[in-house]
Amino acid sequence: NFRLSFGYLEDPGIQSQKLIGNVMTEIVNLIFLESLNDLTRNALLAKKGSNLSSNLTAIDNRQVSDCQYLLFAFLHREESVRVLADKFILQMLEKFPQLLWNRECLRTLLDLVNGVHKECENQSHNPTSITIPGSNIAVAVPEEMVRRQLMLRNITVLSKQWLRTAIEQAPHEMCSLLHEYFLNYQKIVQSNVEHLGFSLVVELTTTISTTISATTLSTVPSSSSNKDDKSKSQSGIQSSTFVSALNLKSRFIGEVNGMIEALQMVGHGDENTVMNLLKTSISTTLTNFQNGTKKVDLVSFNKEICKAAAYLASKAKDFESTSAKDLLHYTCWAPVAIFSRKSLQTGVFAWSWLLAARPEYELQIMNKIREVWEWTIEEGLGLFCRAERKASPLSISKNNGQSNRQEQSGAKKYQRNSSPHRIWMNFLSERFTLARGRSKDQVDILLKMLIKAVAKPEQLSCLPEAFASRFSLLVLCFNVLRSNTIDDVQLENVFLDRIYQSSLAWFSYDPIWHDPSNRRQIESDVKVLIDFCKKIEETKVHFYGNAVQNESSATSSLLRVIPSLTDTSQMAPAASSTGNPLRESYTSHLKNKSNLLLLLMGNELERISSWHNPQNIISVSFPEASKYGAPKDIRTLQWQRYIRTAWAISPKLAVQLGSRFPFPKVKMILEEKVRSDPAACINDPNALPYLVTPATAQKDIPQLKYLLYWAAASPPFALQLLSREYNSHPFVVQYAVRVLRSFPPDTIVFYLPQLVQVLRYDKLGFVEEYLLQAVKQSQILAHQLIWTCLSYSKDPEKCLVPLAPITNRLRQKIVKRFDKVSRHNYQQEFDFFEKVTNISGILLQHAPEDRRKVLREELVKMEVVGSLYLPTNPNTTVVGYNEDGASPMQSAAKVPILVPFLVSGNSALCDDHLIIDPVQEILSLEQQEQSRLDNFFVEIQPSSSSSSSSSSSSSSSRRGKKKGSTRRTKKSDDKPKKSRSQKVDETDDEDGKKVVEDSPAAQESSRKPRIQRSKSETVIHHDLDDLQDSKSPKRSPASSTAQVNSLLTPSSVSSSSSSSSSALSSSKKDKAASQAVGVPKIERRTSDQQLATHWQACIFKVGDDVRQDMLALQTIELFKRILEDVGLNLFLFPYRVVATSGDCGIIEVVPQARSRDQVGKRSDGTLYNYFISRYGPATSIEFQNARNNYLRSMAAYSVVSYILQIKDRHNGNMLIDDFGHIVHIDFGFIFDISPGGNFKFERAPFKLADEMIELLGGVKSETFKWYMQSSTQAYLACRQHMNSFITIVSLMMDTSFPCFTKDTIANLK
Predict the structure, then answer these.
(1) What is the CA 234 to chain-centroid distance, rounded?
(2) Per-residue pLDDT reduced to its tens digit, 458-510
(3) Cα torsion 897, 901, 906, 911: sign
(4) Do 1281 and 1118 touch, CB atoms closer than 8 A?
(5) Which runs of consecutive H residues, i.e. helices, occur in 543-580?
(6) Quick check: 981 and 884 in contact, CB under 8 A?
(7) Is the pLDDT of residue 284 over 90?
(8) What are residue 1013's phi and psi, to 5 degrees?
């Protein structure tokens, strides 16, 4: 026993002889090492003995006793004893780390700290000693105050090291033990905590920095009803959390005591009554939650759980009674049943409390936790959610976004949320750290939980938000595997295989980009991945050598728990000799999996590092990540091994190797694999490019028959299969048409330009027949297809494959097959907008000064009859238009016209061919809001004005009527008094052309009171003068009143995002002019504002081909959807353009925006000066918001300009809206066409002028760095879909647009 040897060191005679003292020190050191080794051997033997529990208890008692003795020796008078004790304590903790969380050792340490501290405060110089309750050892305290201070400093340093290590490795357990210690101390001294150890803990928890501090040190139940907070790592949070948790425990113990005393006063204070009351309270909350009858108040729920934990921890005699078991059941199950981040925080808080306070019931508590863990697996919650990933952004459909929002609401939201499991796994990691050296039973419970979790890799969630939780789980699995706590080698092998399978299953899905708004979460994810890679390498080094030695012939009891693990095909092969070929083959199989996994993990780390730190800033980089990066020089033979291993696991995984490593040799190997066994990957659309190529279609390989059953791919890929290169192969065309049939009409409308182009090569007529069938499902699709056919009704002179005969025939067939209702809707829609378009030709015959008058006269002749919608936005209904706001726009030899339309947010047409009468809808809205309108004008309107009243009667309604109805006129008493009408003036633009501009009166009106939505960037800027204008939009009195009502009611105010602007595109000479028109300031409504009326101005052009603009804006729309899909908060506005013929088109206008040229005319100086004059000082919130909007739009448009090679970016082609966004218009020069005869004068990839850099703060500013990072992230996100962009552009090559040359596709690639 090393304790006896310490007696020699205390002998003054030995210490006086330096040589003898040194020899004795070495002897004591050797004796302690032998004693330590003896303890280690006995612990290993105890685990293999028959009486496992009693053997481990005896060993634990000896370890604890020795550790306590060393703590006392650390305060010995003799320095040699103190030095050795310090050394031995560290060695003992390294061998047996579980002693860090042993309650007896911790109590001894804190008692010694407090005792020495009190003696230092004691001014008496009399010799004294420190005695710890429950111990027969006393520590002598020197009489000199200097030596006492030295003793206090030493024990304080040791305590800090001890507590820091324990808190960092197992924060929940350590804080719970500390709470128990201080609560008991309070009971003993009958006062608040006055303990030096308490101060040390608070100091430590303030300085320790962890990545999940809000739940790491001690998960405190929230006392507020705010939304779940994201993970933080701010210093200072930990100490407040620790103290709050201690106070909460004291508080809930007090509340339980009060409850017991109150019940005792009425004669019902027995234990069962109290527990039944607590149980009933929790049960009622759960019932309401499960039935959905009442919203759960998490604050009250937290209190109920904490009261239950307080009673079980401090008052329950045992956990054997039925009431105690039930209350424990609810304490463990209820937080998980609610399954939110806060509820799991409360659960972990309660579980840690119980485990620390009632260690005798650890197994019972852990078994309950295991049961509820397995329940989440069966129910598919969080990490085990079976939901599929959201639809690709290429699947353009308004229904996709809606369904995704529905999935994330209500019950399904909590099912998808994996953050509770992340909190849970932090708790389980701690439990394993604590149990591995002291409780084999707890380790077995944890092992069962983990085996159940990875038994079926497909049960783990594939959702992007589950990424961190999945790999945190697998890191824990590796920790358990490497701890030598699994006795059955067969189970060990299968467990390792399941870990590999579960991790590789993640890479069977498309790569994701992590949420860029949560940088701290990205950093946490990288650390998890690096830790995971380390575990793989450790396993490779230490596991394979003895992976299959000493195999047990019997199946492990743990294996029998999970049926899927008893499959003999997955078991490690039994072997009795080291040269067993089956064993070697299995070991090689595991090694191949680990090598493949390291390759994929390296690629993932590279992706995250590039995404998180695209500028490679050292301060935010991950040095360790580069160590595990994917190798760059992999030979073909190695690639074959990787792909063969992946294919054996899952063909889907092998195909994803091609996405992550787009190398020619990888593509070649995958083509061979897919064509040799196409049935294996028939459910994976990503495998199709390796089977279906122009070459295989030309050769007509027999494997193409599998296309009849293949899973549907994306629309761009289906369109690619219909191109000329695939030679209209029957199987290929049938598959492509089947894919298109699987998407809704709005998706097909988006891709109509490409779909019409492939009609050139529709030798079998499948595409044409599909279109004829599809238009029967949607009138809007039919109308848009007819307009597309009209725009290609004439072939260019040098046309290799004519398209006009096909489109003309198709258009005639569509019209001929219309039923009566559809034909009526078609005729009124096309007749109305054809008349509006033809006005441009009429104006061309008149002098410029007469054109405005003629335009108004022509518009007055027209009526809005029936169900009309804007061709640029089919999801609207035209309510009326404003002939006084309409204006001709000057051009060289053409007269485009601008007409403001009043539209409502509901669709005029629906798929069941019902005709919706917007007049009736507006009348209904008027009746609902008339009183609100009256009250508004009583408070705000000035006194009556006879002139305004009389002027209102002169306006006639342009709103349509049903057959037999008469046109209604406005009367003075139909609406509030009017103010001045909208006026417009003309000024010269930079080229000397006449452009429409706001009059001084219109500018003055902008300073009037505005109706706007608070707490939103998108605001409706309708002036009251505009709403009451006697010459404002022509509509019925009902629609006029309803428009005002809809703008005054909160329910109809738009809450759209900052991208809610309209847009305008025009030819080079009239684009800028069209932006300054005095149209009421409005924003496009979101889909949920079905009846909200708003203004939408459109440009009608004759003599200009807008189809190239349509292509550019189509790709910009895809860019926008991709950026939204990955969570990048950038701004793009793809305004809408519809070509109604080859030389006619309708273009949306951008309200609340002016060209840079117009901005310069209104305010001298740079953009920075304009922003200051428009939004206020640079330090103001308004300026910073506007600059932020400018940055977001600049980053997005920089990438768009770079990829589409957009040129001619002069000041007239860039707009600045009221919120600071930049919006690009006029895409006449894209790809391989340039101004000035295509001499490529513009060599810059995109425009970044000095004034733009100045507004962004200069090249060294944080704002500019953010701009560069956002641009790079946007580029990375879009490049992942490069093949789809190339397909969309390549299918338009036969149009002979001026932007195309023979090198266009190569340059785009």
Answers:
(1) 22
(2) 999 999 989 989 999 999 999 998 887 787 888 888 899 999 999 999 999 99
(3) negative
(4) yes
(5) 557-561
(6) yes
(7) no
(8) -90, 125
Reported as a single tens digit per residue, the pLDDT across 626-683 is: 888 778 788 999 999 999 999 999 999 999 999 999 999 999 999 999 999 999 999 9
> Who has greater pLDDT, 905 or 552?
905
Lowest-pLDDT choice from 112-121, 180-189, 958-967, 1170-1179: 958-967
pLDDT, mean of residues 75-104 = 86
Tokens representing 241 are 């959390």
Q: How confident is the model at residue 767 (pLDDT cuts 50, 70, 90)?
A: very high
Handedness of CA 152, 157, 159, 163 (dihedral sign): positive
Q: Is the dihedral of CA 818, 824, 826, 830 positive or negative?
A: positive
In sequence order, the 6+-apart residues with CB closer than 8 A to the CB of 736 are 718, 719, 721, 722
Q: How far apart are CA 305 and CA 107, in angstroms?
A: 28
| Reduced 3-state DSSP string for 816-861 | HCCCHHHHHHHHHHHHHHHHHHHHHHHHCCCCHHHHHHHHHHHHHH
Q: How many whole angstroms separate alpha carbon 586 and alpha carbon 571? A: 9
Q: What is the DSSP letter of 317?
A: S
Amino acid sitting at position 183: L
> In 149-191, where do the E strands start and end?
none
Nearest to 991 by CA among 1064, 1063, 1068, 1066: 1068
Instruction: Report the DSSP beta bridge partners of residue 986.
Output: 996
Task: Provide the residue type at 252 as one letter.
Answer: F
Inter-residue long-range contacts of 316-322, CB under 8 Å, 24+ positions, other chains counted: 316/271, 316/275, 316/358, 317/271, 318/361, 319/358, 319/361, 319/364, 321/271, 321/272
Tokens encoding 963: 């057959």
Residue whose tokens read 């357990």: 173
In which band, very low, low, confident or very high, does the pLDDT at 154 lie, cut at 50, 70 and 90?
confident
Q: Give the β-pairing of 1010-1011 and 1022-1023.
A: antiparallel
Q: Inform me whether the pLDDT recorded for 942 exceeds 70.
A: no
Burial of 546 (0-12, 13-18, 19+ CB in 10 A): exposed
pTM (2 d.p.): 0.78
Tokens read off for 825:
């809707």
pLDDT recorded at residue 73:
85
Taking a C-beta distance cutoff of 8 angstroms, is the pair 80, 135 a contact? Answer: no
**CB 1201, CB 1209: distance < 8 Å:** yes
Residue 511 has which token pair? 């790569």
Distance CA 204, CA 113 (A): 15
Mean pLDDT on 868-882: 91
Q: Residue 889: what pLDDT?
A: 86
The answer to whether 1223 and 1193 have CB atoms below 8 angstroms apart is: yes
Distance CA 183, CA 1079 (A): 71
Structure tokens at 1018: 């998108």
Whether 727 and 697 have beta carbons less than 8 Å apart is answered as yes
Please give the structure tokens belonging to residue 691.
């089977």
- The candidate with the shortest Cα–Cα distance to 1142, out of 964, 1296, 984, is 1296
Q: Find, among 1156, 1097, 670, the residue nearest to 901 by Cα.
A: 1097
Place 240 in a pLDDT band, splitting at 50, 70 and 90: low
- Reported as a single tens digit per residue, the pLDDT across 741-754 is 999 999 999 999 99
Torsion sign (Cα): 575, 577, 579, 584? positive
The pLDDT tens digits for 882-934 are 999 999 987 767 889 999 999 987 776 755 433 333 334 334 434 433 433 34
- Nearest alpha-carbon partner for 1221 in 1137, 1159, 1130: 1130
For residues 813-835, one letter each, b for 16 or more C-beta atoms within 10 angstroms of the residue's C-beta and e for the rest, the string is: ebeeebeeebeebbebbbebbee
Residues 799-813 pLDDT 10s: 788 899 999 999 999
Q: H or E element: which one contains 1155? A: strand 1153-1155
Strand partners, 1217: 1153
Identify residue 302 by its one-letter amino acid code.
N
Secondary structure of residue 913 in the 3-state scheme:
coil
